[in-house]
Amino acid sequence: MRFKNEVAIVTGAGQGIGKEIAFTLGREGAKVVVSDITDKINEVVEEIENLGGHALPVRADVSNLKEVKKMVKETLDKFGKIDILVNNAGIYPFKPLTEMTEKDWDKVLSVNLKGIFNCTKAVLPSMIKRKGGNIINISSIAGSVIGYLNLVHYSASKAGIVGFTRSSALELAQHGIRVNAIAPGAIETLGTKVVGEEKLEQIAQTIPLKRIGRPSDVAKLVVFLASEDSSYITGQCIVIDGGLTIQ
User: Fold this and answer.
1) Do 184 and 158 form a contact (C-beta atoms < 8 A)?
2) Is 1 a member of any domain?
3) What percentage of the chain reaches a pLDDT higher than 70?
4) 232 is catalytic
């Protein structure tokens, strides 16, 4: 219960990594605002509350500043403060650069990178007023560490997240706000399962630890970065990929 009486917002929390992050923070005592663009957030909230936690579902498109401000207002109206923001919302439509349109590029950058700007800006007045807070941005090894085929827009957005993390950490340290990023490798979600079990096993064999990552692996790292256990860490991007990118 290391986050008892603390309030966390998790974007993109309707499924996958975001859902597991919301569950884990809830199990650790946080009051969790579960945000996404789908009604799946209601199921996530129900599951958290069934475990004895407190949660609030808020539909919001992170690329829309008006909706993000509404999300933050609903959080403050319900819980009175914001201690933790996990910028997890993101999309990754595969498309070759030669076929990529301006619309494709703008959509990915709007959700993945502008979304983090919108959410961070919206929570800052509350965090600065309280002289503290933790912001955790979900990047990726794609772009921030290595390149990936057919994901130029995604890779650019995820590399941008690391730059945003480092610079905002410098500016916000004076207010007692820490900002860090996490760069996952292959994680077992609905998105990765579409390639099939055989392909996943082939991928696993290329990873030194010989397995695909789990959403819980990322969620546990979020807990560490959001807690006092990491109180001297800010502006960092921590890679969690089973050793894939050290080869």
Assistant:
1) no
2) no
3) 98
4) no
